[in-house]
Design brief:
Blueprint (H helix, E strand, L loop, with lengths): L8 H6 L12 H15 L9 H30 L3 E5 L9 H8 L2 H10 L4 H6 L10 H15 L4 E6 L7 E5 L2 E5 L12 E2 L5 E5 L2 E5 L2 E5 L2 E13 L6 E10 L6 H5 L8 H7 L12 H28 L8 H4 L3 H4 E6 L6 H12 L4 H11 E4 L10 E3 H7 L1 H21 L4 H7 L2 E2 L5 E3 H7 L3 E4 L2 H11 L1 H6 L4 E3 L6 H7 L2 H11 L23
Parallel strand pairs: 1-2, 1-11, 2-10, 11-12, 12-16, 16-17
Antiparallel strand pairs: 3-4, 5-9, 6-9, 7-8, 9-10, 13-15, 14-15
Length: 533
Amino acid sequence: MTDNRLLDDDKKRKNISITGVAPNEQEENIINSFNKHLHFTLVKDRNSATNRDFFQALAHTVRDHLAGRWIRTYQHYYSRQAKGICYLSLEFYIGRSLTNTMINLGIKNSCDAAIARMGLEMEELQSMEEDAGLGNGGLGRLAACFLDSMATLGLAAYGYGIRYDYGIFTQKIVDGWQVEEPDEWLRFGNPWEVARPEYVRKVQYYGNVEQTKEGSKWVNTQTILAVPYDTPVPGYENNVVNVARLWSAKAPDCFNFKIFNDGAYLDAVIDRNIAENISMVLYPNDNNFEGKELRLKQEYFLVSSSLQDMIRRYKANKPANLICKKMVMTDFPDKIAIQLNDTHPALAIPELMRLLMDEEGLTWEMAWNITFRTCSYTNHTLLPEALERWPVSLMQRLLPRHLQIIYLINHYFLEEVKAKYPNNIQNIKRLSLVEEEPVKQINMAHLAIVGSHAVNGVSKIHSHLLKTETFKYFFELFPERFQNKTNGITPRRWLLLSNPELAEVITYQIGDNWIKNLEDLRKLVNYFTLKKM
């Protein structure tokens, strides 16, 4: 047995000693676990089970092998008080999880052999898995690749998003025309997720702001519950399992029994329906007022529930004698880093300010220092007209306290601008968070830049254009904030999983380090002249 006292932190993580977790899973154990789940979890036998049942049994079997690693990963982070990287994104285009998880756990070959021994076809079982309806494009795929990469690097990373009931839509072609139908990806359940109702958060909307001796107070609000579901994100063969925490919206009182007994059956569940609309679909149509309001609700729902959860995690790592309001938050930026994936989560800046001032009792100066040092912003959009903006009238109706905070942020920021560019009215108009024309609205990209200590583009040319065109005047003001982070993809899903034959050829020539370090593929340049590989 290895003496753990002689191992460094990284080796300890790789030498997990949780019962039932072994480096190389045996076929017999997989078969036994598969049959156990078919019998006890799904209550089926081989005669009555369908391919979907077989997929569920296999998925639960694979998830069993995640469990010990999952628990130990968070024990490790907690014991080290590791800094948490919190990635906020409205999308996580994670795709199917079964094969990717087997590969990252190093049990793919054993699972293939076990399934074959039972007379089943692995490809048929894989095809039964629903594609997670959590994203629809490059923004979401980038977020998923980052989570995979950070888990493989052993970083204490947390994805925060929304658990959409129907994703965006399923496309069908009928008589040559596109027909959009709901993407019911959860209709058969999701074997990977774990509900965490004990960590439910309350999210507020509407109401008004009252001035008290203690400061501003947001009152008469409507409350929605945010229920978290955790989806595991395993690193590649390193025993690390991180988490994407996805929030589902629920009403505090989902059923009005009195109204139901009075015969108003639809009215009895109206509060539930209004609440659940928030996490119903990705990108609801915003061509009307209701759609715009729902989108803004979604964005605030994501940031409020996630920030409350981050503060809860942060305090959980503090000794009980340090849980006092002003002392407990001073090193928050040293323990939590928040990455905003585009402008959708930009409301995190005024929301963190609100939580620090209104809930934690900090001064404006302390709250701003913490917020600025904690937040970073990734921009995906070059066209100024495509940058997200919200009408002030809608913000005043839905989030009055946040509008108040945004106005104050803008006031202090413009004072800084005036000091650097005196008598330059045009520059003030260009840089203001509040645009006056054509309607009064909040420019969310400007808010994200002002409230973040780092701003990045997603390619060299993109970052260059941000500095020279889109945000030229911000770059002149804050050149130290702007940087580049070239987007990449995970070679594990997009090569090792997608094209195993090619992956085998590459590994034969240059070794397998490319699986964790994509730069190693440059070594293939040495083999361009080969006629055969």
